[in-house]
Amino acid sequence: MVRSGGRERATTAVVVLALLCPLALPDFYLYTAADLIIWALLAISLDVLLGYAGLPSFGQAAFFGVPAYTIGIVVSRGGPLTLAILAAIAALLVIAMAVGYFATKTGGVGYIVVTMLASFSLFQLALVWTGLTGGENGLYLPRASSLAVLRVRAQYLVVAGLGSAVLWASRRLARSGYGLALAAVKSNERRCRALGYNVERIKLQVTLVSAGIAGIAGILYALVERALAPDLLGPGLSTEVVIWVLLGGAQTLVGPIMGAALFVTLKQVLNTFESYPLVLGLLFVAVVTWAPAGLIALRPPGRRRRRSPGGPRPSPPETGLG
C-alpha cells in the first residue's frame, strides 16, 4: 500500500500536470488529454465505491451513460443546454437512488448482480428504443449545444478544472470522518452494526456519491465528444472500469487514474490489431500477478527499503534441528 504522503505528492503532481498541459501541448493532444481526464473521473467514481467502501459495482456505465443520453435527448429535441443539464442531474439522481436502494438491500454478491443488471438493462433499452435514443446509431449533439463552441484550450481547462476539483474533493472525503466510517464498514460490517452505525444508509450514501462523480464524467463526455452510443451504458464499459481501478491500484484515487490512462491509451494504439484484447488481457494478468496492489505500488527493481545501522537484524530462519 502506498503511504499517505506519497499519495498526496502524486495527487498534487497529477493536478499540476493537468493544469500545465495547455502550455505545452497542441490542440489535438489537448483534446485527447481532456478525453483521458473524463475516463479518469469515471475510474475515480468506482474507486470511491470499491476501494474505500468495498462495494464491487459492475454498473458504473449506467451512472455515466444516463446523464449523457439525457443531455442528448433534450438537446436533440430543441431544448436549451441548461435544461438538458438539469434534466441529466435529475435522471442521474433517479437511477442512482433506484440502483443504490436495491443494491444495498441485497448486499454482498447481490450488489454486483443489481448493478450489472442495471447496466445491461439500460444498454438494451438504448438499443431498442430507437425513437428516443437513436438505437445503434445513437445521438449526436449539435455544435451550438456543447463545449465545441469554445476553443480547444478553453474546453480542456473546463474539463481539467472540474477533474481537479473532483479529485481534491474525493481526497478530502477519503480523509474525513466519513471516509473512516467507510473504511470501518469495509473492514468489519458486523462490528459497525453492533456499534450503532446504519450500514445500509452509509452504503446508499456512498453509492450516490460515486454515481455523482460518474455523472459529472458522463455530462462532460456528452459536451466534449458529442457522439453518444449504447456502449456508454453497457456492461462492457462497466467491466473495463473495474479493470482500470485494479490495474492502477484501488483505494489510492491516483492509481485508477493511471490505470484508466494506460488502458485507454493502449486500447487506442492497439485497436488496429485483431488480437489487441488478448494483449490487454495479458497485461492485466501480469500486473495482478507481479503487482497485486496495482501499478502505483510498483518500485524500481534496485530500490530496497533502507535499514538503519543500529536497527534490529532479521533473525535466521528456524531449521527445526536441535
What does this protein structure show overall?
The protein has 322 residues and is mostly helical. It has a single domain, classed as ABC transporter involved in vitamin B12 uptake, BtuC. The protein is built from 13 helices and 2 strands; from the N terminus they run ααααααβααααβααα. The chain has helices at residues 4-20, 27-52, 60-76, 81-106, 109-128, 130-133, 152-175, 177-187, 189-194, 199-225, 235-248, 254-270, 276-290, and strands spanning 139-140, 227-228. Strands 1-2 form a two-stranded antiparallel sheet. Helix 3 packs parallel to helix 5 (109-128) and helix 4 (81-106) runs antiparallel to helix 10. It is globular and about 55 Å long. Residues 317-322 have low confidence and may be disordered.
Q: Please, how many domains?
A: 1
User: Using only CA atoms, what is the Rg?
Assistant: 21 Å
Strand-pairing-aware structural class: mainly alpha
At the first level of CATH, what is the class?
A: Mainly Alpha
Portion of residues in beta strands equals under 5%
Helix content: 55-70%
Distance between the termini: 39 Å
By DSSP (H or I, 4+ residues per run), the number of helices equals: 13
Question: What order do the helices and strands follow?
Answer: HHHHHHEHHHHEHHH
The CATH architecture name reads Orthogonal Bundle
Question: The CATH topology, please?
Answer: ABC transporter involved in vitamin B12 uptake, BtuC
Based on CA inertia axes, which overall geometry fits? globular
Number of strands: 2
